[in-house]
User: Fold this.
Amino acid sequence: MRRRGLLLGGTALALGLASCLAPPPTDRPPSSEPDPPGPSSADPSPTTPSPGASSAATAAPSSGAESPSAPIVSNLADLRPGIADLEDALGAVLGVAVAVAGADGVPGREDAAGSIRTGPAWSTAKVPLALAALTEHPGATTDQLVSRAIRLSDNDAAQRLWDAWSSPRQAARAVAAVLRAGGDETTTVPSAPQRTGYSVFGQTDWSLALQARFAADLACLPHANAVLQHMHHVGDNQRWGVSPADGFTDVARKGGWGPDANGTYLVRQLAIAEVDGHRIGITLAARSAGGSFDDGTHDLDRLSHWLGSRLRIREDGRCPR
Assistant:
């Protein structure tokens, strides 16, 4: 795997992959009550399919040239018929992608399944935003804002992190640099809103495959331990999808959700977990027949439960040591 550098604020930071530490163990969620579910960040992409749409209607990532594909790392391609059956049973459209750490390239067709291949990041974009803020604006205030932005998906806290840069363009550039360091070579972070009322960074069109690549290598990025600590302790408004109850272990997660112009929610999740001792990045997405946030989280729970007993990893995913 090539070594990547993180260029922020004009200073190149070595990633130090050899000293990459494992995420901390989980324990109880934070005692503070999370805010009730609501729009978490962004403008949904018009290319995200509505319930019942075919996979052919799902647009490819709008972020530029295709990245090279990594070697096949899972049996996800074999599970496609079952995922299609689950979509039919739920009346929903679903998406999943899997990657392992330390591999060049993003998951290809064999490590992605379901009808949803891309869409707005929503609050999953708070993960690279938090890493960028901790690098460029270290201090107690940033630490507190990152905690709220990740654990509670607090929109005001995330907006304050974004506003710490002198301009939206500089903020977008800093967050994009974190994506590049994490193995996502093409996703573009916008600097201007596509739709008023939602944060700019959450309107990032982030494909599930590219997000899985980023999640897989997240532990090797600067300040990852702090962010993963929060992802291990998310509040109740994000305790859905990939779960220890489904056979995934050492789960760290961040959810994102919000409505399109018709009020139908896209719910998605960025997660890092272990399957049979293999470390993976896994991303899930759902757009449910009922269209609500609760419907979407229910369907992600069903997808996680279905995957948990069937997903197998063929290559170990670890930071090089």
